[in-house]
Amino acid sequence: MSELRFPTSLGMSTTSTITLLGEDLAGDLMGKVGLTELVYRMVTLRTPTPGQVRMLDACLLALADHGFTPTAIAARLTFLSAPDSVQGAMAAGLLGGGSRFLGVTEDCGQFLHAVVEDLDEVPDDEAGWDEVAREVVGAARAERRTIPGLGHPVHKELDPRTPALVAIAHEEGVHGPHLALFEAIGRVHPEIIGRRLVLNGAGVVGAALADLDLPLPLLRGFALLARAAGLLGQLAEELRSPIGMDAYLAVEHHAVFVSPEDALAAQEGDGEGRSS
Question: What is one Pfam family matched by this protein (predicted)?
Fold first, then answer.
């Protein structure tokens, strides 16, 4: 019977040492390697360039906090209910990272990569990318599909993260085909759908992470990593200046009973309105 083996290239411990990525944690990494670089190395098993580190760091900063989002509110209310469970409050906020909040980072990266991967030839100028984008937007419109990362519930005129991230990508030489395609979608979609939507910063992050050759199935994980930092800040503020109880009481005091019969009637009325 063969001896059990569980291979790993990550952390290992003995009675007196800790190694990570084959290096001594205390002697080789602590105080010498930043968290952003370490995350990149742990995920890819490659050492990033300074430009890649700066780009990844900017992406994480872009997603860390966005105010009283549902994820932040969930964390604060859970903290209100269980102040002895910081882990529960953090988890509550992270569990809200789905298709509407945070998840768009992975969805956009996956969407763009599917297009880029299928190209016979990668365009080398904006005109070429615009042609690809017209096909992409046209196909999505014909199939009545939304394009991940196009539009934002708050930033109707401009998502300020978008130009900043694109500029950093150019400065650091990590502007690749995914960002190029997403920018082209931003340029051409108004002529096809008849209105202008902003390029969502979370979507730009997805494009940028794909250009950094990070694993596509893990892109949402980077969004969650960033938001974990933001949630810690939210909980610290809840300790300093609590709003959880006020939020709870605002809902409690404005709750209005609706009979089951009226609720069903309203639901059926909404259904008829949507189908007309």
Answer: Citrate_synt
